[in-house]
Amino acid sequence: MSTRGYAHLSPIVDQSNHSGMVFGLSEMINLLAPKTLAILVLNETKIDKIDQLTVMIHHHSIPTCIFNDLNNYFRYIGDNLRKSLETTSLLFCQPEEMIEAIVEGRLAHRLSLYIFYWGTTRLPADLDQSLLKEPLRVAVITNPRKNFFRIFYNQAKPNNRGVLLSTNWFDGNDMTFRRVPLLPVPTEVYKNLEGRVFTIPVIHKPPWHFITYSIFNESLYNETETELSFSTNSTDIEQTTFEVTGGRDYNLMQLIADRMNFSFNYVEPVDKIQGNTIGNEENASFSGALGMLQRREADLFLGDVAVTWERMKAVEFSFFTLADSAAFVTHAPRKLSEAFALVRPFQATVWPLVLITILVSGPILYLIISMPFRLEQWTSGSRNRRRRTPPFYHMLYIQEMNYGVSHRAPIAETPQHPSLDRCIWYTINVYLRQSATIPYNGHVSRFFSILLWLCATYVLGDVYSAQLTSQLARPARERPIKTLEQLEVLMKRDDYQLLIERQSAFEAVLINSSGILQRLYRITLHQSSNESYLVSSVEEGISILIANSKRAMFGGRETLYYNTKRYGAHRFQLSEKLYTRYSAVAVQYGSPFLDSLNEVIMRLFEAGIIEKITIAEYERMFGSQTGQFTDESSKSTKSENLEDETGKSKKTPESNEKLQPLSLRMLQGAFLALACGHVLGVIALLVENKAQRIKLMCACFRKIYNIFCLFLLKLRNKIIRFH
Question: At 54, which helix (H) or strand (E)?
Fold first, then answer.
């Protein structure tokens, strides 16, 4: 398509003042419209033309900087890449000299476009096409005849062959471009990958990928035949093959491949992990699947890949495919001992108040009854003494408190109010719901007795009976472990151990975090030896948790949710959401098709297709009748509720144990309390019996001692008389 009369490209310029090269380059740069332009000049003979070029480029209001030192230029490009700034470079040097240095310096990126001006009629013949492969973006401008320029581009096709194809030309005589824009837009080029075959690493990690392994023997025969003998030597070699049979990310990758028109081959990393850092932080390399992407041995990787800062330095990530949360799973709260069912309704905050109330009630009743008598005794004694100021009370008030009783016993006589031990015994009988006689016939004491009876009957009695009935009908369980604070207390007190997947993003988070996560990591290192807290997969950690309940598996909530459903949700307790983490598709650093991939994923996300794929995968897994899954089904991992066709929500059935009929075993606490009472009674009887025997023995010893003393006295008198 020709575009003539493209008047807005530049102001009217007298071409006689400028060479054809300067004018053509300025028009092409103007049509390209870069945000910043870096000009590298290594040939001093072209400095005059460079001055003319920069003047014309400035007329188009394009920021420009000129370099004549290669190190400064590379430093400038590297800084822009770290800041994610798009940079266009115009290079006046030999392409074969620069391309290798750009690739080795990891400056090949989709944000950097390198335009080489090759002022000859043909392309350089010694260009290595292997260096022109993705993600390097290279355009070469040739000048086959006067005022005519051709533009060659290595990413004009999405085949990644590194071939420079003619994409545009410019005729300076009539101001004509072949097409607009100057270079093909990457999103349009990589919108259709034209059947390109990608290499994708895969790891067996349910429910994201399910891999089935098969082993077969391959025999190698060595036959040697002579005239006299025949011998055959065979060697059997076992080879392992795998096949991806399903999974949520497997279905998602197939959908993306259909949208972008590419195919893929799965390869398994040698160490079968996502990847972990190797080396120092500055020049860190990765192992596993991410290492294959970093070394450009694979094209992309999808499989619950968490986005972290360390990984973003080696690879790039697309728009997130899963917004998951970190969590940990422990054993389900177990039933508490039924022997303590009698005392369990009284929590630690209730017991002190109940005991204080029982202990204080008796003395308070005694003070209520005896206080009028004490006051009257004090006033009677003060009358006999020297009168001082009048008392602060009136006798009519005292008489009202004495309930009209006019005659009071003197101080020296026996008081007419009950003793303290009798009041205490009466209050204990009231709390124990036993029959008892009011120790004093007075209105205040009766009112206080009624108050005690109401407290004992309705507050302590009925509430306690209701709590005890609920405890027996639905046995109490342990407190569930839902927060990191609770887990920290159990790790210190009960030697709980935290399990982490080896070389995963969660291990890096635990090591590099601060606060409570750092404290948990220190406790884990102190408890474990030889890195026994690291497991190869979440499945292995769940298996260890089943065998030993004092374990907690740390990982992604979606993965933990699947494994707990697989082994039985009633056996595990999933914690609260700790923090949000994002999973995305990992691609090579500077991958040119990342923008097209993001566009496809965002459309799938906005349409709800990704969530539907997740729901369908869980429904297929948990709805199957195979023995490895439970009979429960869950259509959503985000909520515990389902929505039917009418839009109403209904709760999923909980996986609880069947209710058991009430038995005497549940009342064993009452029998234990009765046995304790009998034991205390027997001990009191024995102590009383022993005390009575000791008292009798003391009396006998006292009589024997008196008899012996009397005998000695008589003997002394006889001796005195004899003398």
Answer: helix 47-58
| The two structure tokens encoding residue 414 | 């026996």
Do the beta carbons of residue 640 and residue 663 sit within 8 Å? no
Distances in Å between the Cα of 46 and the Cα atoms of 92, 98, 123, 541, 620 are 9, 18, 20, 67, 69
45-to-15, 48, 50, 53 alpha-carbon distances in Å: 21, 7, 10, 14
Longest dimension (CA), the chain: 172
Determine the Cα–Cα distance for residues 274 and 290; give it in Å rounded to an integer. 6
Residue 391 identity: P
Backbone angles phi, psi at 231, to 5 degrees: -130, 145
- The DSSP H or E segment spanning 225 is strand 210-225
Vertex 358, ends 357 and 362: CA angle to 5°?
105
Residue 485 tokens, joined: 């604070």
Domains in the chain, ordered, with CATH? 7-184 (3.40.50.2300), 194-210+246-334+477-642 (3.40.190.10), 338-381+394-408+416-473 (no CATH)
Q: Which H or E run contains 457?
A: none
DSSP assigned state of 205: B
> What is the C-alpha separation between 162 and 160, in angstroms, rounded?
6
CA–CA distance from 189 to each of 35, 186, 198, 308 (Å)?
21, 5, 16, 29
Write the DSSP symbol of residue 128: -
Residue owning tokens 């949700």: 569
CA angle 574–578–579, rounded 5-degree value: 135
CB 158 within 8 A of CB 180: no
- All residues at 6 or more sequence positions from 306 whose CB lies less than 8 Å from its CB, including other chains: 504, 505, 506, 556, 581, 582, 583
Q: For residue 58, what pLDDT is reported?
A: 87
Sorted by sequence, the CB contacts under 8 Å of residue 304 that are 6+ apart come out as 205, 208, 249, 322, 324, 556, 558, 559, 583
485-531 pLDDT, tens digit each: 889 888 888 889 899 888 788 888 888 888 888 888 888 888 877 77
Cβ atoms of 55 and 70 closer than 8 Å: no
* Whether 588 contacts 301, CB under 8 Å: no
pLDDT in tens, 133-177: 899 999 999 888 888 889 999 999 998 888 889 899 888 888 888
Spatial contact of 373 and 408, defined as CB atoms under 8 Å apart: yes
The pair of structure tokens assigned to 562 is 């699947």
Instruction: Please state, in angstroms and rounded to a whole number, the distance separating the CA atoms of residues 483 and 467.
Output: 27
User: What's the CA gap between 571 and 132, in Å, rounded?
Assistant: 56
Q: Rounded to whole angstroms, how far apart are CA atoms 449 and 455?
A: 10
String of DSSP letters for 324-385: EEEEEEEEPPPBPPGGGTTTTTS-TTTHHHHHHHHHHHHHHHHHHHHHHHHHHHHHHHHHHS
* Tokens matching residue 402: 């004495």
- Greater model confidence, 46 or 356: 356
CB atoms within 10 A of CB 191: 17
Residue 44 has φ and ψ, to the nearest 5°, of -70, -20
Q: Are 321 and 584 in contact (CB under 8 A)?
A: yes
